[in-house]
Write a structure and sequence with these properties.
Strand order of the largest sheet: 6-5-4-1-7
Number of helices: 0
Mean pLDDT: 87
Largest sheet: 5 strands, antiparallel
Helix content: under 10%
Strand content: 35-45%
Shape: globular
Length: 93
């Protein structure tokens, strides 16, 4: 996927409740209260759950991922996540 692609022309890749794993280490860019800029807020391989879905710049889906073991919620893009469980059957795509 290229950054220039407008993701909002298609449905989100994940739904609330989906279990996902982080494909990369994420550092605080200044948007996470209680952490210094540059602090690691998610490690590659951390497991979390999609809590909510929003948009950024009217172009990208942003997934609020709750990392229960870390006690944090981090906004992530689809390319930073891998599903590790199927979407719940009652939520059609």
């Amino acid at each position: 996927m290229r950054d220039e692609e407008v993701e909002l022309v298609r449905d989100p890749a994940f739904r609330p409740g989906d279990k996902v794993v982080s494909r990369k280490t994420v550092r605080n860019d200044g948007t996470m209260w209680g952490h210094e800029i540059g602090d690691i807020v998610v490690h590659k391989g951390d497991v979390g759950y999609v809590r909510d879905i929003g948009t950024f710049l009217q172009q990208y889906w942003i997934y609020a991922i709750e990392f229960i073991d870390r006690g944090s919620i981090v906004g992530m893009r689809e390319r930073e996540l891998t599903p590790i469980s199927p979407t719940t059957p009652e939520m059609p795509r």
